[in-house]
Amino acid sequence: MTDYRHKKTGTLYRKLSDAIDCTNSRDGTPVVIYERLAGVNELYVRDAKEFDEKFEPIQSSDKTTGERNA
């Protein structure tokens, strides 16, 4: 599992897995399953291409708490 920072908000997330969307109209679309590192106990799913555009991987030494203002 790798940690990521949302480029706009600075919020930290953990990428849990890559997956394939099997919805009829999107069958075969690569997606990413991820969760917020603090505060919310929910899983999120996003197109892999969009995830790569909006998030950047971080090193453990780069982790900060809170969010940046957009």
Quick gist of this model?
With about 70 residues, this protein is mostly beta strands. It is built from 1 helix and 5 strands, in the order E-E-E-E-H-E. The longest helix is centred in the C-terminal third of the chain and has 7 residues.
Please give a structural write-up.
By secondary structure, this protein is mainly β. It is built from 1 helix and 5 strands; from the N terminus they run ββββαβ. The protein has one helix at 48-54; strands at 2-6, 12-21, 29-36, 43-47, 55-57. The chain has a 5-stranded antiparallel beta sheet, with helices on one face. Strand 3 (29-36) and strand 4 form a beta hairpin. The protein is elongated, with a radius of gyration of 13 Å. The model is unreliable at 66-70 (pLDDT under 50).
SSE topology sketch:
Layout: E1 2-6, E2 12-21, E3 29-36, E4 43-47, H1 48-54, E5 55-57
Question: Judging from the principal axes of the Cα atoms, what is the shape?
Answer: elongated
Number of strands: 5
The total of helices stands at 1
Counting helices, strands and paired strands, the structural category is mainly beta
Q: Overall pLDDT, averaged?
A: 87
Helix/strand order: EEEEHE
First-last Cα distance? 26 Å
What's the gyration radius in Å? Answer: 13 Å
Percentage of β-strand residues: 35-45%
Percent of residues in helices: 10-25%
Q: State the low-pLDDT regions, or none.
A: 66-70
Number of domains: 1
Strand order of the largest sheet: 4-3-2-1-5
Biggest β-sheet description:
5 strands, antiparallel
